[in-house]
Amino acid sequence: MPLTLTSPAFKRGKVIPIRHTRDGENLSPPLEWQDAPPEARSFMVLVEDPDAPSGTFRHWAMYNIPAGEVGLQEGASGQGPGRAEEGVNGFGNAYYDGPQPPKGHGPHHYHFRLAALDVPRLDVPASAKAEEIWTRAQPHIIAEAEVVGVYAR
Description:
Elements: E1 4-6, E2 31-34, E3 42-49, E4 57-66, E5 71-72, E6 85-86, E7 108-117, H1 130-137, E8 141-151
Antiparallel strand pairs: 1-2, 2-5, 3-4, 3-7, 4-6, 7-8
């Protein structure tokens, strides 16, 4: 079976609860994955909003998630499992910043992307931006999955 990603906080294609947005508690939502390839040595999570007025906006990058993990608990940002690290998002922060589309801009689609990697660690500078980390991960991705949630203000 292929790698799958879900969130107990919201159904695929449905509204992301306010507690997981910058309008609420700004907590990263819980994520769960199944059927990771046995050769996966680590995982990476990236959250993107392709509907942002200035182009794709990255809200979170967590990488070097240990291979034995099968998910992230709610609020995992800042306290990720094992030696997981976080990249700098579009707001300039090295942690999860949830949805906050411009008021009246309509619904935005937030892509929570999971990549299973063939290396135990991505060696990137501590100040690396989310998009740079995703680019560095590309040659090491052996499986991907995503779950999309929606949010509007």
